[in-house]
Amino acid sequence: MITIINDTPENVAAFCASGEITKEDFENVVIPRVKKKVEQFDELNYLMYLDTDLENFTAGAWFQDVLLGIKNLSKWNRAAIVTDKSGVQNFTEIFSVLMPGEFKSFPKENLYNALFWCQNGNEVQS
């Protein structure tokens, strides 16, 4: 299931993925919210908090199809993937070369920093 993370910066479309993720999650939750943010801000600042394993993404929801679909209707600016899975963190860094905008991974403990980066383009000073 994908849910919208509330109480985030206005210019950030933020989501939490938990349990099984389906194509319908993206069609009914992610894509409408992304469209709304792009219409409001003429760019997309996106955050996905992964509270599930990638094995829980059904074939129809797999990143290749979903992210490429979103790419075609969006103006990527910044995208943060929040996860403690090193494989996903590495994939995010590689994927950033292929996509427009900036992609960055953050560990779960740094959710606030990820939101701040999505909103402002820089990280909170520690």
UniProtKB/TrEMBL annotation:
InterPro entries per the UniProt record, alphabetical: SpoIIAA-like (IPR021866), SpoIIAA-like_sf (IPR038396), STAS_dom_sf (IPR036513)
Highest rank taxon of the organism: Bacteria
Pfam families reported in the protein's UniProt record: SpoIIAA-like
Name of the protein in question: STAS/SEC14 domain-containing protein
